[in-house]
Amino acid sequence: MTDTTTSPSPGSVEDHDRPSTPLYYGGREHQGESKLTVVNPAKPSEVVGQAAAASREQALAAVAAAQEAFPAWAALSGTERGEALTAAAAAIMEGSGQEAAILSSENGKVVGESTFDLMGLVQRFELAIGLAEEVDAVETLPGPPTEVRISHQPMGVVTIIVPFNWPIAILGASLPYALMAGNTVVVKPPPSCPLATTRAVQRVAERLPAGVLNVVTGEDAEIGEALVSNQNVAKVCFTGSVGGGKKIMSMAAQTLTNVTLELGGNDGVLILEDAEFTEQNMDLLFMGIFGTTGQVCMNAKRIYVHSSKKDELVAELTQRLEQVKLGPATDSSTTMGPFHQKAQLEFVQALVQEAKDSGAEVREFGELPGGEWAEGHFMRPSLVLDPDPALRVVTEEQFGPTIPILAFEDLEDGIRMVNDTQYGLCNSVWTADEQTAIEVGSRLQAGYVFHNTHGPALLDQRAPFGGIKQSGIGREMGTIGLRNFQEPHALGLLKAEPSSGEADSTPVG
Questions:
Q1: In the annotation, is 322 catalytic?
Q2: Edge to edge, what strands does the sheet with 486-494 contain?
Q3: Model confidence pLDDT, tens digit, residues 292-306
Q4: What is the pTM of this model?
Q5: Residue 242 φ then ψ, to 5°
Q6: Which residue numbers delimit the Aldehyde dehydrogenase domain (predicted)?
Q7: What is the pLDDT of residues 24-80, one digit of tens each?
Q8: Residue 297 is a catalytic residue
Q9: Contacting residues for 84 by C-beta, under 8 A, at least 6 apart
């Protein structure tokens, strides 16, 4: 890959730099049998670039390349793999100005977020590499009669399927942990937004032994089965919608393939009577609602606020929404980009219109872009005040720049309303008292609960991340995330012959 040392204007990709990405597996590039055309969500008539579209046979070849590379990579110690990954990860930020511009152009989000997307992968590599000693750790259960050594072994080939919104950083929640655990990997970037992810993965893969890391782009219908329902794939990691996760799980069931599913969330914010609003935590809440045009799984989707704090909260969010500038990433003054896809725009528009029709107060902010950007997937951000709790804007994951705000009087009612959902990814509790945060937070049904903040900015990436209920299966990151890419292995060493009585009483499993 070429290291671009000069940067174009923010979010732009010059015509002569329009990327065309290949497939990369087995240590070399391959051309697809056709192409995916990638467009700019801020201006759908503008082609950003093209990506190779793999055939089923090419996807199978990528898995075969990973399978061939597995024994030698698995034979390395955790420390040896960590050293190799440290050297390879140094390539992630090469030409970062150009890479962020590509990601913003194909995704739609502002270029600052795209830069952090790349940085997120770097940080998560560092955290995973820091667990080198855990990779080979052995626990011993002493005898007699049997001394049992419990270790954790690599699984094999791992398929990782990432979404469009933060594809590179989200890849970091699984890829470095899978590699550190001794697995080899095939990455499938999102078909609508594959360019920057493919380029980043290839830069890393080129610095690892052939076949250890591979990337294939293509249509789900063409290559999905080859990457998921494949007896040579030991594990599939999928981040995306609940519907997509159910489909992946069904496909993986055909070969009893292990899955980790990080799915949608309808995250609740619970603001108690003693909550203190500061400029910092309100800025974080604002970004935890409206960042990436609301298209983040762990963004806040519902707010339940004690009635005594409601007016102050609305005023704080209004102050920040009044500063929003809608537009394309090419405009350096833009603070909120378009939806990535038109279908999602139309879905969220329908939720907001339904709330208006029901009589809820909807406050909208900002101005829609005109001129050459008039056909972009833009929507004015909004607050939906006191909606009927049965409305879809409350019960469903909007995945867009709108949020319902509902008041409560009794804490038990607030807790009940937060938990009254099929989802369980993240929640947050806002209180000035830490003990109250512990007591209430432990009752909020989610894989991760924030205190006095919400969203990716202050997610502690040393901790395991994932959801309960319809929000997913399994965990990523941290030691638990590492273990999710390993198989426990028990070796029993007979230290003394048991007596006949002991043998007769031993249960049979």
A1: no
A2: 139-141, 146-154, 486-494
A3: 999 999 999 999 999
A4: 0.94
A5: -60, -45
A6: 32-487
A7: 999 999 999 899 999 999 999 999 999 999 999 999 999 999 999 999 999 999 999
A8: yes
A9: 76, 208, 209
